[in-house]
Design goal:
The protein is mainly β and about 700 residues long. About 10% of the residues lie in helices and about 40% in strands. The chain has a 13-stranded antiparallel beta sheet with strand order 23-24-25-1-28-29-30-27-26-46-47-43-39.
Length: about 700
């Protein structure tokens, strides 16, 4: 940029070397209770099973076969008797039969049979794991022998029966058409030969204390299954079980065919690999290098042939930088994927401020007529990475840490750095999601959570993804229509007023949640272990909230907001507990946006001094600035920021109007008082009268 009158103030640099500096940070994708997951309410049973409190074979919850009047008995025996009554007339040889009457009676046995197995109980949904996790089971259960009839194996031979508790690891392979084929691998197993002969006896089984199994490569989830196995063949078996008929009392006999222990409940334990996290790499930059928690970059300045730099950063959208070079060839250093940064150089010869950064995504040569051809490169920020699959959404930002840790870009959640190199996500995105859909991306998932929490998502000028519960309350810049006032003045290229397209008088809230009925209405029975029980299905429901007076006066202007609803905790899903609805949430938006708002919509700042360059170089989307006009001060949040830097000029355009998927909730930020000239001067200006303003169109 040799023709650049302020060439010593702005530089364009390209990456020449990249080194990964990430240190294992201990952020795990699945966080389960250290003491194990209690399984009683998380196990799928037979559809006709009924749970009751029992004391035999121990205190616990017993499973009984339901025998309802509207269901036929299976294998029930019926005894029928006929009683005849014959009436005669006459005597001796003249005796004849006068009338015959009779009655029949049938007695249904008080005992019926029901088919049980091969699967007795199984976890309703797979539990997500990652290779290296340590898994284990524990607990006690009881199972009754089936009755006086021998079980028959697949060859119709009489067989004893064993009860098996298996912890299966599930791996999924996907073909070129996207079809997945789950494969089950036993990781831990307990076998108890509970029925070597016929009978009704209750038997008890305590899972042994064993070393945890380490989840092998390729396994992404686990299922715990208790099932029946034939002793003769070693294959799964269904057994005809004697079952008590409703309303009949059997002395000295219990009919619960399976029992969960209260004192020693069945549990599944998932522990992450033992990792000793190290000290994370520090974040810093110099004029030749920069480092974040993932990479250290070395840069070379390529400013000499630059004739124009345009940058555009948009809330909730892709940020693009366009750099033009007066050259007929493309510098071999500037290749796709290389990191580029545009920096403002401080007058001290050492310091710098990053104006924009990203990676090269496009290059083209623009032929010139009467001028030298130009090479134009397009540099995109990390917004494109948010298009990667993320099949889960969570109800809090903190729960996103394991997923964002694997995104491969610098990222922080409420100021906590969770950056990590790109790695595959675990099944379902991690533990306890509030919603799951394989079509979700990081962006669509984060927007759901952002909307539900009324939070904020932005990519900074340093190309860092920030997920925020609140925005900084400080004002980043103060501008005025009066030269010499505030930090700087804006040009005549400014937009003030109102626009009806900003109105919102109907709010449609599209709630994305897990289907409680799909979770509770899951049953097992004749399946071979493990039964094909997949992750819980999601569902969507939409509620609309309207402001009729505004619609009548100004016409319908509706906005739709996708949100995620529910904690994702299995106990809440089973209970159908999704928390409160979004009525108050929507009302707050209608209160603020159902009427016209007047104020600044866009301004342009001509940059002249070093102080002004320092201020505008630090601006990010969603930063608060004060715009003063005709003695009225407005606080606005930047929705779009564009820098246009050419030889001899630098302008910055700021837009404040909300568009697309940008947020409709902003914090109240007070208008700062401009200090007196004796204690503070801004561009040599004079003190501005104190004013207290309100956000988004309010007046002091």
């Amino acid at each position: 940029m040799s023709k650049f009158t302020d060439a010593t103030m702005v530089a364009v640099q390209v990456e020449t070397a990249r080194e990964q500096v990430w240190v294992q940070d201990g952020i795990t994708p699945n966080v389960y209770p250290a003491g194990g997951i209690a399984l009683l309410d998380l196990l799928a049973k037979r559809e006709d099973a009924e749970i009751r409190n029992v004391t035999t074979p121990f205190a616990g919850k017993g499973m009984f076969a339901t025998d309802r009047r509207d269901k036929p008995l299976t294998g029930a025996s019926v005894a029928t008797s006929l009683n005849l009554n014959v009436e005669y007339s006459g005597t001796g040889s003249s005796r004849v039969v006068k009338d015959i009457s009779g009655t029949t009676s049938s007695v249904v046995s008080a005992e019926s049979e029901t088919s049980l197995g091969p699967v007795i109980v199984q976890t309703r949904m797979p539990t997500p794991v990652v290779p290296g996790d340590r898994v284990n089971f524990a607990g006690r259960f009881g199972i009754r022998r089936s009755g006086t009839s021998w079980a028959l194996d697949e060859n119709d031979n009489q067989t004893g029966v064993s009860v098996v508790c298996t912890l299966f690891g599930i791996s999924r392979t996907e073909d070129e058409y996207g079809t997945t084929d789950p494969v089950a691998i036993p990781l831990l197993e307990y076998v108890g030969n509970f029925q070597p002969s016929v009978g009704y006896q209750q038997t008890t089984h305590t899972l042994p204390t064993v070393s945890p199994a380490v989840v092998p490569a390729g396994v992404s989830e686990v299922h715990l299954v208790i099932w029946l196995r034939a002793n003769t063949t070693g294959k799964p078996i269904a057994v005809q079980y004697a079952a008590k008929k409703a309303g009949v009392l059997y002395i000295g006999m219990t009919w619960n065919y399976f029992t969960f222990s209260n004192a020693n409940p069945l549990t599944l334990t998932v522990l992450p690999p033992v990792v000793n996290p190290g000290a994370p790499a520090a974040t810093w930059h110099t004029r030749t290098q920069e480092q974040n928690r993932i990479y250290r970059y070395t840069y070379e300045t390529i400013t000499d042939d630059v004739v124009e730099v345009k940058t555009e950063k948009i809330e909730a959208d892709l940020g693009v930088q366009t750099i033009k070079f007066a050259s007929a060839t493309v510098d071999p250093k500037v290749t796709a994927g290389k990191r580029v940064r545009i920096i403002a150089l401080h007058p001290d010869g050492v310091g710098l401020t990053v104006i924009a950064s990203g990676r090269v995504r496009s290059r083209r040569i623009v032929p010139g007529i009467g001028r030298v051809p130009q090479v134009e490169i397009g540099v995109h920020d990390s917004h494109g990475r948010l298009g990667e699959p993320c099949p889960a959404a969570f109800d809090t930002f903190a729960k996103y840490a394991p997923a964002l840790n694997r995104l491969g870009v610098p990222v922080s959640i409420d100021g906590v750095d969770v950056s990590g190199p790109p790695r595959p996500l675990p099944s379902w995105g991690g533990a306890y999601p509030s919603y799951a859909d394989e079509k979700l991306t990081y962006l669509t998932s984060l927007v759901m959570a952002r909307n539900a929490r009324k939070g904020y998502v932005r990519i900074t000028r340093e190309d860092r993804l920030e997920v925020l519960s609140a925005l900084p309350a400080t004002v980043a810049l103060d501008v005025s229509d009066e030269p010499g006032e505030a930090d700087m003045s804006y040009s005549i290229d400014a937009e003030f007023g109102s626009d009806t397209k900003d109105l919102v008088n109907a709010v449609r809230v599209t709630e994305n949640l897990l289907d409680s009925e799909d979770f509770t209405d899951r049953y097992v029975g004749s399946d071979d272990p493990p039964a094909k029980l997949d992750f819980i299905a999601g569902r969507t429901q939409t509620a609309e909230y309207r402001r009729d007076a505004s619609i009548e006066a100004l016409g319908l202007s509706s906005r739709t907001f996708p949100v995620v609803r529910g904690s994702g905790a299995w106990v809440d899903i089973a209970a159908g507990n999704y928390g409160t609805n979004f009525a108050a949430w929507a009302t707050a938006i209608l209160d603020q946006y159902s009427g016209e708002q007047t104020g600044p919509r866009a301004i342009t700042l001509p940059i002249v001094t070093a102080e002004q360059r320092a201020l505008v170089s630090k601006l990010n989307v969603l930063d608060a600035i004060v715009v003063r006009r005709l003695g009225v001060a407005y606080v606005r949040r930047i929705r779009r920021i564009s820098h246009n830097i050419k030889p001899g000029s630098w302008t910055v355009k700021l837009r404040f109007d909300v568009t697309g998927s940008q947020v409709y909730w902003l914090p109240n930020t007070p208008v700062p008082q401009i200090l007196s000239a004796a204690s503070h001067s801004v561009d040599g200006g004079f003190p501005y009268p104190a004013s207290s303003g309100s956000l988004n169109g309010g007046t002091p």
